[in-house]
Design brief:
By secondary structure, the protein is α+β, with helices and mostly antiparallel strands. It contains 15 helices and 18 strands.
Length: about 475
Amino acid sequence: MKRLVFLFLILSLSGCAVNPVTGKQDFVVLSEEQEIQMGREYNAQILRQYQIYEDEKIQNYVQSIGESLAKKSHRPNLIYRFTVLDSPEINAFALPGGYIYINRGLMAYMSSEEELAAVLGHEIGHVTARHSVRQYSQAQLMGVLSAAIEINSGRTAGDLANLASGALLSGYGREMELEADDLGAQYIYQDGYSPQGMYDVLAVLKDQEIYSKKVAKQRGIEPRNYHGVFASHPSNDKRLQEILDNVSQNFVKGTNKSKSNYLAMIEGMVFGDSQQAGVTRGNEFFHGPLNLYLSSPENWEIINNANSLVFKAPFGEATLQVTLEDLNFVESPEEYLKRFVRNTTDEEVLMIDGLSGFTAKTYRSGRTTRMAVIFKDDKAYQFIAYLKDRDGDFSSYDLQFMNIIKSLRSLTEKELKYSQPLRIKTYKVRQGETYESIASTSSITLNAEDQLRLLNGDYPDKELAVGRVIKIVD
């Protein structure tokens, strides 16, 4: 206990540094060199987890905008690296030391370079204010305090390290997010953009949050939160408006940026799933690299997650999840499944498109579950299906579960083209066209009209003007 108290005193007395933004003393336990080293190590982890979007033109474009903003920041001495990730998720984030990432999924929903600059400026703000380092330091301090309180509980130093490192990517509170908005608005304004760009991109994120509530209801899950600051629309947030007004009144605007054609820049960008992840089209799933086809019942949704493929009945009443594992033993599908599951019923040996498999029902975690495995090449495709309501009528969905399982097969030569990803395209609106009419022929599989409105900043009910150039998906 004495050692822990001593460590606490050392951290409290020595862990202070001048904040590059405010000029005030902050409690931190990392030097700038340690901050950069931490960012370097986490960057390596990120690049192992995510694919870089393979478009040199887009990567150079984002890097050039980010570098120009960084020169206006409070830490222009850092070398900033801006990376576009090949992910459909609507997200951007920063690591310590100047490593900043933006997903192509977020870029698709922005409509101007000014909005892109606002996102990058916001993330630069997190770096310049050392938000992640401050969170890490606070987590270290809380870890020491917790260890002092729970010294007899068996908590180890490794546990504390995990607690602290988890703070880096856990998001920020309202004060830090608003500070990043403020700093980002300053940087883009001094670089020649309008502070309105910050408002516009926050409005994009708020619209996505509102839309996510609709999707969450359809899926029977909790909705996403995309910024974590605004309870209502940013247009109603007085503090944000004060921040933006303060920037335009107290800072010198840089030379106006030439109006680059952002829509032309992202023309052809992948939308939604990538080819490597497999592509969903309507109620069908095509995976070129795995030479794999699956389909769902007509009114179900197919959700392509990073490590699984999920089939959802309306309102999430029933779920079937597909995962993939390497085969490591010479055994039958029945032997494979029964290594993991006991007390099975309704067993059936499967032969699907020349592929061997096995399925059975079991009772696990208080609910009836349909499980199956199909061998294809040196892989085992694992299926787990269950109802949202533990006491629901399983038989009412079991036939649909089996139809999904038995739909697995190789792609035909004609279907290989459907494994190509959807892409963003520009389109000029014609007389009489509406979002509804354009959505009726769209390749977007879920809520096409809503998605097109979100892509063009017109959610939920703005109308189209003849001659306007918008984004569509093909």
